[in-house]
Amino acid sequence: MEDSYRIKPIGIVRCTFKTRDEITESKKRGNVGEIELFEEYEEGLSDIDGFSHIIVVWWMHKSDFRGLKVKPLHFPEKLRGVFATRHPDRPNPIGLTAVQLLERKGNILKVRGIDMIDGTPVIDIKPYLESDRKDGGRLGWLTGRNI
Amino acid sequence: MEDSYRIKPIGIVRCTFKTRDEITESKKRGNVGEIELFEEYEEGLSDIDGFSHIIVVWWMHKSDFRGLKVKPLHFPEKLRGVFATRHPDRPNPIGLTAVQLLERKGNILKVRGIDMIDGTPVIDIKPYLESDRKDGGRLGWLTGRNI
Asked: What is the CATH number of the domain that holds B71?
């Protein structure tokens, strides 16, 4: 196994959120914004129009990893293992967001459900498949919380 | 925006699949294996036990990116835009798999639903949340196919 791997941005998020403190679950749900792929990647978006949902893989460029226990942003009363949270300050600051695909125009995807801040680097786009849907799961320490 | 970012493996997949050709949707579903985090990351798994599902983020170390159109592994009759597929040969070869968490023992997670090959590097673990579940979606070119 290699010591490390290199990834590069393929696009950028355009939306109204300027800081991560603004982003709450309720605001996120309706939030419409754009995923702009750099033009050289546009060809890779062929056939994506038929999918109602996609997964945006993004780079948490404001991340500042300091340790394996973190205070969750909206539930800071207790330290939690970072892998039991979606906290951005993690060893590899990769973010995942399943969004609704509203429209595609060339290299621009109009989507609903953005929880990244404006200017976030995008590193991959994937179609949302049946196997990504898991029903009736237990939510651990988040059970009963408004997320 | 920076030109590139560096990520590092935090663990490894242990399972029975030795080549990607062996992996089909039906075999994957029941497939039990282990995600072994390197010991220095064990502390980050605190609080994960209560989640029934987790998302494994992994590095497609056998990936060989050659172009933005690919032949899907199980449906090779037509070239598709790589971002409308889960094909491993993509600009940033990051894989996502939502699996059922069966048991945790220290730095080892026993999971069901693995679709990686044995020895795959793991780069992140995330709890599966309500917002990861999208219902009744359209599946584009995959509609009606057995995936």
From this structure: 2.40.30.70
